[in-house]
Specification:
Shape: globular
Number of strands: 5
CATH superfamily: P-loop containing nucleotide triphosphate hydrolases
Strand content: 5-15%
CATH topology: Rossmann fold
Largest sheet: 5 strands, parallel
CATH class: Alpha Beta
Number of helices: 14
Order of helices and strands: EHEHHEHEHHHEHHHHHHH
């Protein structure tokens, strides 16, 4: 059993659709929606590992291919600070203590900038500063983004302790971007399947909006009822819908324009750089690799 837990915005969809689902030695028996219902959604009192394990094995026991459970939410929810990351790890261990775990990381500032854009695409209307700021005193912080989710050493160390170093593979999005063939070969070899498999290199899963388009969409989201913004002051949803469509159609034009500092620059200003630096040093020790060569602060 292979379990790929993300992180979010690390090429997960490409891995799911172009690699895991198409490799001749691998099988993806469950969609992310089904994994959400089976593993993530049940509360702590309702989660039944024996029943869930039986349900999962019922779809994999007759297959000659290696089953892959791939869902980035298994690493935690970044929009709520990853506060159930340990709970997810414990559930996975109770289900499949013999599993091989795949974790893909991304340099923190890049990762947070990308997840902010995802938040806006989901309907969020806050600025980068508002998205990353802690709530006022007296409000429950557990419902908000928290940069501690991106201090990777804690999660990686916990998985190493639970599953054992031989069963935990830590990969990097930066390696994927630099040399995707080498990245893929190393990943497949580590989990014990044919490393020579090469997916269609021309496939592109997502086309991202420019920073300017994202900033404009955050404004438009104020006019519609969305998951992150369920109670707009003025609900005129057609403005948001048509505006969003227009932004996608004119995205290349907006790439040439600027409304101020880039999303990445705004994230960098809000980030606790020293906290990330210390976390990355610990991570380098855990994985026996100098990740500063990949652009991580160390």
């Amino acid at each position: 059993m292979i379990v790929h837990i993300g992180y979010h915005k690390t090429g997960t969809t490409w891995l799911q659709e172009s690699v895991f689902a198409r490799h001749p030695n691998m099988a993806v028996p469950f969609s992310v929606a089904e994994l959400n219902e089976l593993i993530v959604r049940p509360n702590s009192f309702a989660f039944d590992p024996d029943k869930t394990r039986s349900q999962i094995l019922s779809r994999t026991v007759e297959s000659q291919r290696v089953p892959v459970l791939s869902y980035e939410r298994l690493s935690g929810d970044p929009l709520s600070g990853g506060r159930d990351s340990k709970e997810m790890a414990d559930r996975l261990y109770r289900l499949f203590p013999e599993a091989k775990i795949v974790i893909v990381l991304r340099e923190q500032i890049e990762a947070i900038a990308s997840i902010y854009k995802q938040y806006v695409l989901m309907g969020g209307c806050g600025t980068v500063s508002q998205f990353m700021s802690h709530p006022d005193e007296g409000l429950p912080e557990y419902a908000f983004f928290d940069v501690k989710y991106y201090c990777y050493d804690a999660l990686v160390n916990y998985y190493l302790e639970k599953f054992g170093a031989p069963n935990v593979l830590v990969c990097y999005y930066e390696d994927l971007r630099r040399d995707w063939v080498g990245f893929l070969s190393n990943l497949l070899s580590a989990v014990g399947v044919d490393p020579s498999f090469i997916p269609n290199a021309s496939e592109r899963v997502h086309v991202s909006l420019s920073d300017t388009s994202i900033q404009l969409l955050a404004i438009l989201n104020r006019f519609g009822r969305t998951y992150p913004h369920p109670a707009p002051f003025l609900e005129i949803d057609w403005i948001r819908r048509y505006g969003r469509s227009a932004l996608y159609k004119t995205n290349n034009l907006w790439r040439c324009m600027s409304l101020g500092r880039s999303v990445k620059e705004q994230v960098r200003q809000q980030c606790p750089i020293e906290r990330f630096r210390e976390s990355n040093r610990q991570l380098s020790t855990l994985v026996s690799r100098d990740i500063s060569e990949l652009g991580y602060l160390c």
